[in-house]
């Protein structure tokens, strides 16, 4: 059961904070009139996805360093998305949107560092 929890937690983080922003940036690149800015954003997300993929490989091998690198990149993605939300807000602070961006990685870190799932890396 513990490997299943680790797998689902990491995959949901990977899709939500890696693949989904990469897919939207690729779509933005394809329909954008300013291709250079969209290309920079796409390369940033592609780098984050690659690092997360390598970290997931280490997590699959039960190495704790994979967990550390995975959450480093996830939190970089969270802060970039949070900054984007704050810059896009004109009149009011988007608290619910910010909470939505920050809450799942915090819970995922708790699952992999503080719950019984941390035994996955201690075997």
TrEMBL record:
Q: Which UniProt keywords apply?
A: Membrane, Transmembrane, Transmembrane helix
Q: Which domain of life is it from?
A: Bacteria
- Entry's transmembrane regions: 38-60, 69-89, 95-113
Organism for this UniProt entry: Pseudoalteromonas rubra
Protein name in the entry = DUF2569 domain-containing protein
